Amino acid sequence: MKKEILLTGDRPTGKLHIGHYIGSLKNRVKLQDQYNSFIMIADQQALTDNAKNPEKIRSNLTEVALDYLSVGIDPSKVNIFVQSQIPELNELTMHYLNIVTLSRLKRNPTVKNEIKEKNFNESLPTGFLIYPVSQAADITAFKATVVPVGEDQLPMIEQTREIVRSFNSIYKREVLFEPNVLLPEKGLGRLPGIDGKAKMSKSLGNAIYLSDSSDTIKQKVMSMYTDPNHIRVEDPGNVENNTVFTYLDAFCLDKLQLEEMREHYKNGGLGDVKVKRYLNDILQAELEPIRNKRNYYEKHMDFVYEVLKTGSINARSLAAETLSEVREAIGINFFFKLNR
After folding, report:
1. Do 222 and 122 belong together in one domain?
2. Torsion angle of the four alpha carbons 229, 230, 232, 233, in this order, in degrees rounded to the nearest 10
3. 8 Å CB contact between 208 and 214
4. I want to staple 311 with a disulfide (CB 3.0 to 4.6 A). Which of 40, 79, 142, 232 is the partner?
5. Main-chain phi, psi angles of 242, to 5 degrees
């Protein structure tokens, strides 16, 4: 019987790519049989730095939902919900903001890095600055016991744990629970972009998406960054920071063949084209059934919307219970009406 609650999710700023797939989506499919799972499409969090372009978030929301279903996330086992449809999360965020200092928010290394990446400087939206508190509300609203994250997100979870401890201490009630972290399996780090850059994103045009056609995938694989000094087939090649081999490490199941290919490449006599063709075959086999499922769900959008509606109703019911307990602990759980 599934007892522990798992919470995870994504910002709908674009379609999901194979970095998301290998880094989290495959794991979520496995975990859905072990935990009571809630998967959040974090549209409000995405709006913290996209407030002037809400249509981008609205259109990508359904794209993310389609990607979830196409990889095998089962709505009969998992609640897929939309963050903005759970207003209780906003009130929880407000209550938590009262016990978090501005200096603590500014010290969060994950937020500091993202602020630097986005070049916010003095134009930093307040909503973006406080999103660690909003994330704490997301986690605690569902009394999540387990949150799968990458190592770069550990400061966010630690801040959630701090908020839980502070709240329970101030109001002298064990209302909130500290979540545990579930890190990716060793060796499953973030995939680089096909151009070799550390980050894979739509804005950089260096991602392979789950919804890409077979021709697009082949084109992208054949353009991948390898070893710039591996000019002739007979030249020894470097597999370190070689994007093709990084992807093969993530997707190739025949580790013996991969090791033989790696040694051949390092010693010379193996060309980039042959290695890329091998990777293309592997990715096509992995992504074709996902793409076919996605095409099916695109023709049955009423079902997709019903999944989001049902998941959001279930999520809101649980969040409302938590908010009621939080209000009671604070002493503001009033049940009277004000008459004029």
Report:
1. no
2. 170
3. no
4. 79
5. -95, 110
- In this structure, the answer to whether residues 292 and 313 fall within a common structural domain is no
Paired with 180 in beta bridges are 146
CATH value at residue 321 = 3.40.50.620
The closest of 72, 78, 46 to 59, measured between CA atoms, is 46
Residue-wise pLDDT for 219-237, tens only, equals: 999 999 999 999 899 999 9
For residue 204, being part of any structural domain is answered with no
Q: Which pLDDT score is estimated for 186?
A: 63
> What CATH number is associated with residue 255?
1.10.240.10
| Number of domains composing the chain | 2
Cα–Cα distance, 268 to 169 (Å, whole number): 64
Domain hosting 21: range is 5-190+301-330
Asked, for residue 274, whether it belongs to a domain, the answer is yes
| Global model pTM greater than 0.85 | yes
Statement to judge: residues 133 and 181 lie in one domain: yes
Q: Which pLDDT tens digit goes with each residue over 287-313?
A: 999 999 999 999 999 999 999 999 999
What is d(CA 125, CA 131) in angstroms, rounded to the nearest whole number?
Answer: 10
Cα(119)–Cα(112) distance, integer angstroms: 11
H, E, C per residue of the chain: CCCCEEEEEECCCCCCEHHHHHHHHHHHHHHCCCCEEEEEECHHHHHCCCCCCHHHHHHHHHHHHHHHHHHCCCCCCEEEEEHHHCCHHHHHHHHHHCCCCHHHHHHCHHHHHHHHHCCCHHHCCHHHHCHHHHHHHHHHHCCCCEEECCHHHHHHHHHHHHHHHHHHHHHCCCCCCCCEEECCCCCCCCCCCCCCCCCCCCCCCCCCECCCCHHHHHHHHHCCCCCCCCCCCCCCCCCCCCHHHHHHHHHCCCHHHHHHHHHHHHHCCCCHHHHHHHHHHHHHHHHHHHHHHHHHHHCCHHHHHHHHHHHHHHHHHHHHHHHHHHHHHHCCCCCCCCCC
**pLDDT (tens digit per residue) in 102-120:** 999 888 888 888 888 788 8
